[in-house]
C-alpha cells in the first residue's frame, strides 16, 4: 500500500471557509457529490454495511473503502494540516458526518484511530509520537484497539489492575494483565492501554497511557461471541508483552488525565452523524408500522412519537454541547451517552413490538441449506430489526454504563456525595 504524502492534503478548509461565500453549503455539496460518484462499482454493495451487530460484514472491502477515502482527503478532517488533517471547521466536520450518514455509506473501520487516539496524541503526545503514528491513521494503514475495560474494572476505569513496569535497562515497558470487551482487537495492529505503572497505587493514581503493538508473542487475542452471533469484542491477554519506553503518552502516572481527555473526543462531532443513522432507523420503522397497521395501535403510535421527540432532544443537546452553549466536559459527555444509549435500546424494543410475531423467528436455513445456528457466527442470519434489538441491549453498558454516567452527573454537577463503595 503506497502511503499518502501528507503535504498533498495540506488544504486548510478553515481558512477556505473564511474567504469563500457560502463555504459550508459548497462543502456539503462537495461531500455529497463525492459520495454519489464513489459509492459505485466495487463499493456499491457496501452501503449500509458494517453497522452495530454487523461489524464482520465486508471488513476487507470496508478497509479498502476507508483507504479510498484517505486518498481523496476525507479522513481526519478536523486535524491540523501539519499532521495530515484538513483543518476543517466544526461545522464542516458535522456536515461531513451528516452527509456520510445520509448516503448510508459503510461503517468506518478506523474510528478508534481517527476519532480517539489521533486527537489524543495531538493534544498530549510528543512530536516523535505524532510523526510516528499519525500518518498511519490518516492513510488507514495501522488500525487501533482500545485497552480500557477489564474483567474486574468494566466501566470503573480507575479500578484497572493490568500492570506495566520498566525493564532493568529502562528501555521497555513489560505488561501483564487482561483487558476485555476490546473492540476490533482481532484486526488491529496496535492498542492504547491504561496500565498501573506505580506499584502499590490505587484508583486513578499511578496509571499510565501506553501504546502497545498487538502482533507480538506476549499478546493473545480471543474473540467473544455476542448475542448477534458476531465477535466485535475480544479478550486481550498481556503476558510479559513489551513496548518501547518512549511509547507512553503523557508522564508516567498521568494516564488518568490522558484517558479522560480521550473520552471527550469519543463523544464528539461523530455523534451527530450517528443521530442521522438513528433517524433513518426510526423512519424505516415508522414505515413498517404504517404498512402492517401497527401504527393504529395507540400504544405503538405513542411510542413512535416519543421516540421522535427523544431524537429531537438528542440532536439539540449535541449541537448545544459542540457549540459551547452548555458546560462541556465529562459530565456533558455523560448526559449525551445516557440520552442516546437509552433511546437506541428503547428503539430496539419498539422494533420488536412493531414487527410482532415474525420478530421472534429467524430464517430456518442458511444459503448452504444448513439449519440456522446462533452458536455459529458464520451461519447466523438475523434481519435488520432482530440485529438492532439484540445489539442495543449493550448500548447502556459499553462506553460507560448507565450507572456510572449517573454517578458522574450526580457527583460532578449536582455535588452529591460519592456512592458508598464496598
TrEMBL record:
Domain Acyl-CoA dehydrogenase/oxidase C-terminal: 253-414
Swiss-Prot/TrEMBL keywords: FAD, Flavoprotein, Oxidoreductase
Cofactor(s) this protein cannot do without: FAD
Organism this protein belongs to: Gordonia mangrovi
Acyl-CoA oxidase/dehydrogenase middle domain span: 145-240
Molecular function, one GO term: flavin adenine dinucleotide binding
Annotated Acyl-CoA dehydrogenase/oxidase N-terminal domain residues: 24-139
GO CC, any one term: plasma membrane
Pfam hit, one: Acyl-CoA_dh_1
Record's protein name: Acyl-CoA dehydrogenase
Recorded family membership: Belongs to the acyl-CoA dehydrogenase family.
Gene3D superfamilies, alphabetized: Acyl-CoA dehydrogenase/oxidase, N-terminal domain, Butyryl-CoA Dehydrogenase, subunit A, domain 2, Butyryl-CoA Dehydrogenase, subunit A, domain 3
Amino acid at each position: 500500500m503506497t502511503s499518502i504524502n501528507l503535504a498533498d492534503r495540506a488544504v486548510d478548509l478553515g481558512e477556505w471557509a473564511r474567504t469563500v461565500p457560502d463555504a459550508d453549503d459548497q462543502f456539503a455539496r462537495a461531500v455529497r457529490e463525492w459520495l454519489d460518484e464513489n459509492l459505485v462499482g466495487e463499493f456499491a454493495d457496501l452501503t449500509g454495511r458494517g453497522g452495530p451487530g454487523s461489524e464482520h460484514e465486508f471488513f476487507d472491502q470496508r478497509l479498502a473503502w476507508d483507504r479510498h477515502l484517505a486518498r481523496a482527503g476525507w479522513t481526519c478532517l478536523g486535524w491540523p494540516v501539519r499532521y495530515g488533517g484538513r483543518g476543517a471547521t466544526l461545522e464542516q466536520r458535522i456536515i461531513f458526518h451528516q452527509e456520510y450518514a445520509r448516503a448510508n455509506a459503510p461503517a468506518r473501520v478506523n474510528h478508534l484511530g481517527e476519532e480517539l487516539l489521533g486527537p489524543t496524541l495531538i493534544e498530549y503526545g510528543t512530536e516523535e509520537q505524532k510523526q510516528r503514528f499519525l500518518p498511519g491513521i490518516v492513510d488507514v494503514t495501522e488500525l487501533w484497539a482500545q485497552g480500557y475495560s477489564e474483567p474486574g474494572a468494566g466501566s470503573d476505569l480507575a479500578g484497572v489492575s493490568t500492570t506495566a513496569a520498566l525493564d532493568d535497562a529502562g528501555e521497555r515497558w513489560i505488561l501483564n494483565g487482561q483487558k476485555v470487551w476490546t473492540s476490533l482487537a482481532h484486526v488491529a495492529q496496535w492498542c492504547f492501554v491504561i496500565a498501573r505503572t506505580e506499584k502499590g497505587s490505587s484508583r486513578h493514581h499511578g496509571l499510565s497511557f501506553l501504546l502497545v503493538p498487538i502482533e507480538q508473542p506476549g499478546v493473545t487475542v480471543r474473540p467473544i461471541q455476542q448475542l448477534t452471533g458476531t465477535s466485535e469484542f475480544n479478550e486481550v491477554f498481556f503476558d510479559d508483552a513489551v513496548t518501547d519506553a518512549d511509547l507512553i503518552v503523557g508522564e508516567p502516572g498521568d494516564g488518568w488525565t490522558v484517558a479522560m481527555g480521550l473520552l471527550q473526543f469519543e463523544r464528539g462531532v461523530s455523534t451527530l452523524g450517528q443521530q442521522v443513522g438513528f433517524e433513518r432507523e426510526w423512519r424505516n420503522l415508522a414505515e413498517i408500522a404504517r404498512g402492517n397497521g401497527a401504527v393504529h395501535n395507540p400504544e405503538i403510535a405513542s411510542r413512535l412519537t416519543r421516540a421522535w421527540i427523544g431524537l429531537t432532544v438528542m440532536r439539540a443537546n449535541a449541537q448545544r454541547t459542540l457549540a459551547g452553549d452548555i458546560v462541556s466536559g465529562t459530565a456533558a459527555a455523560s448526559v449525551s451517552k445516557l440520552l442516546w444509549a437509552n433511546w437506541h435500546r428503547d428503539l430496539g424494543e419498539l422494533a420488536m413490538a412493531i414487527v410482532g410475531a415474525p420478530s421472534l423467528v429467524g430464517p430456518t436455513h442458511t444459503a448452504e441449506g444448513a439449519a440456522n445456528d446462533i452458536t455459529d457466527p458464520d451461519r447466523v442470519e438475523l434481519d435488520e430489526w432482530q440485529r438492532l434489538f439484540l445489539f442495543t441491549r449493550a448500548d447502556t453498558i459499553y462506553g460507560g454504563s448507565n450507572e456510572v454516567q449517573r454517578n458522574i452527573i450526580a457527583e460532578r454537577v449536582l455535588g452529591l456525595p460519592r456512592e458508598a463503595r464496598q
